Amino acid sequence: MLRIDDLVVRYGAVEAVNEVSLTVAPGELVALLGANGAGKTTLLRTVSGLVPANTGAITFEGIDLRATKAEAIAAAGIAHVPEGRRIFGGLSVEENLILGATTRGRDADLDEGFARVYELFPVLQERRNQGGWSLSGGQQQMLAIGRALMSRPRLLMLDEPSLGLAPILVRQVLDAVRSICDGGTAMLLVEQNARAALRIADRAVVLDRGRVAREGAADELADDQQMRALYLGA
Ligand code: ATP
């Protein structure tokens, strides 16, 4: 469904992404792992049309994303939750969710969207009329993911959803990510918490200074000696 071939993205002289190829199949959860500065955020931003690629190809369901503007990429079914949540503190939980449905225009069935988000994150239903500012960090992350789901994406890209969360919330958020995927939404999940990501992913790709260093089935990578020594802190 998403296919990236030999992608190169430079910021001036910095090669942030260097000949990266990867795919995400329908219904698949692919984790994109690697240290700070490995190029993970740049790769997501390039798929979303926020950063131009230098060379290579990106296609989504046959559409050439390099020739497509960011708004049209979102309308084609790709949602992106950037690092740092960025919810609207002055709006209520429900108003934040409604904003997520705007790419669907008049097709949006808000009640169906709310029901889906509240089933995944019941605490958001309890707080639906409260201001975004009043939510905890974990709840803000849930709202950011919920808002993205309101557009009914076929591919959801999440940038570091576990960043700054207590371990119990990391588990809760990542379990929800898995269940979104099980509901039929493909996922590209950027995580620095490699161990937690491998627990829920089908496959993983490890970037190292812009290049693919490792890739494979998540359970195999989790058991791999070299992977454990380099990326899993074991
Ligand atoms: P992080 O987890 O810190 O976000 P990352 O794996 O997502 O790391 P990127 O943020 O994509 O990595 O950064 C890849 C490289 O590109 C780094 O060397 C970074 O310093 C550089 N870089 C990122 N954004 C810019 C920018 N706007 N201008 C110049 N260089 C940038």
From TrEMBL:
<dbReference type="InterPro" id="IPR003439">
    <property type="entry name" value="ABC_transporter-like_ATP-bd"/>
</dbReference>
<keyword id="KW-0813">Transport</keyword>
<dbReference type="InterPro" id="IPR052156">
    <property type="entry name" value="BCAA_Transport_ATP-bd_LivF"/>
</dbReference>
<dbReference type="InterPro" id="IPR003593">
    <property type="entry name" value="AAA+_ATPase"/>
</dbReference>
<dbReference type="InterPro" id="IPR027417">
    <property type="entry name" value="P-loop_NTPase"/>
</dbReference>
<protein>
    <submittedName>
        <fullName>Branched-chain amino acid transport system ATP-binding protein</fullName>
    </submittedName>
</protein>
<keyword id="KW-0547">Nucleotide-binding</keyword>
<keyword id="KW-0067">ATP-binding</keyword>
<comment type="similarity">
    <text>Belongs to the ABC transporter superfamily.</text>
</comment>
<feature type="domain" description="ABC transporter">
    <location>
        <begin position="2"/>
        <end position="234"/>
    </location>
</feature>
<keyword id="KW-0029">Amino-acid transport</keyword>
<dbReference type="InterPro" id="IPR017871">
    <property type="entry name" value="ABC_transporter-like_CS"/>
</dbReference>
<dbReference type="GO" id="GO:0015658">
    <property type="term" value="F:branched-chain amino acid transmembrane transporter activity"/>
</dbReference>
<dbReference type="GO" id="GO:0015807">
    <property type="term" value="P:L-amino acid transport"/>
</dbReference>
<dbReference type="GO" id="GO:0005524">
    <property type="term" value="F:ATP binding"/>
</dbReference>
<dbReference type="Pfam" id="PF00005">
    <property type="entry name" value="ABC_tran"/>
</dbReference>
<dbReference type="GO" id="GO:0016887">
    <property type="term" value="F:ATP hydrolysis activity"/>
</dbReference>
